[in-house]
Amino acid sequence: MEWTIGELAARADVSSRTLRHYDEVGLLSPSRTGPGGLRHYGPEQVARLQRILLLRRTGMGLADIGRVLAEEVDEAEGLRAHIAALEQERERIDRYIREVRHTLRAREEGVDPCPDVMFEGFNDRYRDGVVERWGEEAFRAGNEWWHDKSVREQREWKRATEALVADWAAASREGAAPDSDRAQELAARHVEWLAIPGTPVHAGDRERSIAMVTCLADTYVEDPAFARTYGDREGAEFVREALRLYARTRM
Description:
The chain is mainly alpha-helical. The chain folds into 3 domains: 3-72, Multidrug-efflux Transporter Regulator, Chain: A, Domain 2, CATH 1.10.1660.10; 81-119; 149-250. The protein has 14 helices and 3 strands. The chain has helices at residues 5-12, 16-24, 43-57, 62-71, 75-109, 115-118, 127-134, 136-147, 151-173, 181-193, 200-203, 206-222, 224-229, 233-250; strands at 3-4, 32-33, 39-41. The protein has a 3-stranded antiparallel beta sheet. Helix 1 (5-12) packs across helix 2 and helix 9 runs antiparallel to helix 10 (181-193). It is elongated. The termini are far apart. It holds the Pfam family MerR_1. Residues 69-106 form a coiled coil. It comes from Nocardiopsis changdeensis. Keywords: Coiled coil, DNA-binding. Residues 1-71 form the HTH merR-type domain.
């Protein structure tokens, strides 16, 4: 299969003059030249043109593109690198879109947009850990769930979260035991709070849900930031033991 210079130019959304220029500078030669000097391009040339156009979109000059392609030993590896770069760019653009949508929704609802909501997603700061434990889809599902909420719904969810943390801290200060009704009710609320799209709890996967709750419970003690969230290390240990017991006996 091959395409004439006009056909390829139309498909690639460039001009025939651009393709002729790429040929003149040694960046993209046609697979053959037909009668009357008409250039024809095969699949290999089409793939190379795609690489050239992708690199051009990054702002790279033609001379630098030529060097990159000349030094590239494995074309497939180069394409994989480009896919990774494009995915990062897509995530950056998606983040900007979310920020502007959040501001627009806030204005339409007559409330002030919150910086912590505007400039990060539901679990952006925990991205690496989420992806490592539950995969990229879990991260994306959580963020989509969060950004589908209105500004008021996001604030209500944050308030509910703060109330749960405050109740845990209060129960710890007042000496509740991890196996007490009070602690186990808090554990049930906590697990329900974790039922966010993309998580095993939301999917109803019992074994993975138990593993998730247990893992998070350990993190609350091991990570100093979480320990401070629950008042102190003793408070975090109380939450851990209550959640572990709930996972063993009630999930």
